[in-house]
Amino acid sequence: MRMSLAQRVLLTWLFTLLFLIMLVLKLDEKAPWNWFLIFIPVWIFDTILLVMLIVKMAGRCKSGFDPRNGSQNMKKKGWYLVAMLLKLAFCLALCAKLQRFTAMKLAYVFIPLWALLIGAMLELAYNIFYVRRD
After folding, report:
1. Quick check: pTM over 0.85?
2. Which InterPro entries does UniProt cross-reference here (predicted)?
């Protein structure tokens, strides 16, 4: 499953545009849709990314793969998987709160997003300050 950069950019723009159009229609009260329906483009895009990530991670399980090569790459893919799941948890909690399915405090809704942002800052700091010594 290889996508060119142009295809990835086009796919990202398409799903972002669909999400923003649906969001504007909902906020202008032109469409009485459920909040879970508004986030469908986001979830479709995330599902595509998750499937591609899992397929790449599963490729390490095939016979003849040397586990010593790319252990750093596997850690990065693991972080990507955790980040995607945190984003999914935030979107689900946000939709449940906006749809009034739960009486959860807004601070609790944002916990997955805060964890994602803290993890991203740690990953950035690790990539900036880590000096590999060969």
Report:
1. no
2. TM_Fragile-X-F-assoc
Please, which residues have CB within 8 angstroms of residue 18's CB and are 6 or more apart in sequence? 41
- For the chain, how big is the Rg over CA atoms in Å? 18
For 12-68, the pLDDT digits (tens) are 999 999 999 999 999 999 989 999 999 999 999 999 989 988 888 887 777 666 666
The three-point CA angle 64-85-14 to 5° equals 95
Nearest-angstrom CA–CA distance, 108 and 102: 11
CA distances from 97 to 12, 43, 81, 108, 128 (A): 26, 17, 24, 10, 37
Longest Cα–Cα distance in the chain: 60
